[in-house]
């Protein structure tokens, strides 16, 4: 799981300046928005430091609707954060539509498991495409996927 967090943080580090530009903020305003000093923000933008886990979560939370972040992660990074934060535990989520960043990896007629082609995390959906859970380990989702509701 640490490797996935590190990749998440690295993507956030790499996109920080673009997100700031996209939002029309100067360095001081961006630093305030994500809870950093201006000096730290400058160091991150120059590749001398990293946002770390909390900074990356703050960036993705404050700028959750950023097209730059959506393209970098292949969808909303807000969906990935709970899965990264709760290693080994599937995270219950909500309704979804179709998205070109997701590939179906399993479909049993009752449930669908999709994998994000960029971040590689998985989500379990009902047949009506309601998100049930998400995880970076498909094995976390398999007990729910194989447990079909009993017919009466």
The major β-sheet equals: 4 strands, antiparallel
Overall body shape: elongated
The order of strands across the largest sheet is: 1-2-3-4
Annotation field: number of helices: 7
Strand content bin: 5-15%
Quickly give the structural class.
Answer: alpha+beta
Which series of helices and strands comes N to C?
HHHHHHEEEEH
Number of DSSP strands? 4
- Percent helix range: 40-55%
Q: State the end-to-end distance.
A: 40 Å
Task: Give the radius of gyration.
Answer: 17 Å
Low-pLDDT parts are: none
Which whole number gives the mean pLDDT?
A: 87
Summarize the structure.
49% of the residues lie in helices and 14% in strands. The protein has 152 residues and is of the alpha+beta class. The model has no long low-confidence stretch (mean pLDDT 87).
Task: Map the helices and strands.
Blueprint: H1 2-23, H2 27-34, H3 38-45, H4 52-62, H5 67-73, H6 77-85, E1 102-107, E2 111-116, E3 122-126, E4 131-135, H7 138-146
Antiparallel strand pairs: 1-2, 2-3, 3-4
Q: Could you walk me through the main structural features you see in this protein, from its secondary elements to its overall organization?
A:
The chain has helices at residues 2-23, 27-34, 38-45, 52-62, 67-73, 77-85, 138-146, and strands spanning 102-107, 111-116, 122-126, 131-135. The protein has 152 residues and is of the alpha+beta class. The chain contains seven helices and four strands; from the N terminus they run ααααααββββα. It is elongated, with a radius of gyration of 17 Å. The protein has a four-stranded antiparallel beta sheet with strand order 1-2-3-4, with helices on both faces.
């Amino acid at each position: 799981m640490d490797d996935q967090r590190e990749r998440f943080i690295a993507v956030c580090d790499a996109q920080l300046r673009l997100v700031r530009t996209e939002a029309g903020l100067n360095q001081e305003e961006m630093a305030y928005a994500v809870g950093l000093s201006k000096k730290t923000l400058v160091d991150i933008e120059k590749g001398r430091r990293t946002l770390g886990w909390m900074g990356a979560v703050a960036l993705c939370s404050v700028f959750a609707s950023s097209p730059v972040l959506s393209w970098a992660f292949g969808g909303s990074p807000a969906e990935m954060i709970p899965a990264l934060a709760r290693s080994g535990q599937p995270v219950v989520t909500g309704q979804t539509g179709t998205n070109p960043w997701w590939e179906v990896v399993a479909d049993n007629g009752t449930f669908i498991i999709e994998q994000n082609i960029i971040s590689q995390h998985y989500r379990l959906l009902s047949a009506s495409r309601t998100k049930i859970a998400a995880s970076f380990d498909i094995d976390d989702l398999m007990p729910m996927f194989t447990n079909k509701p009993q017919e009466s």
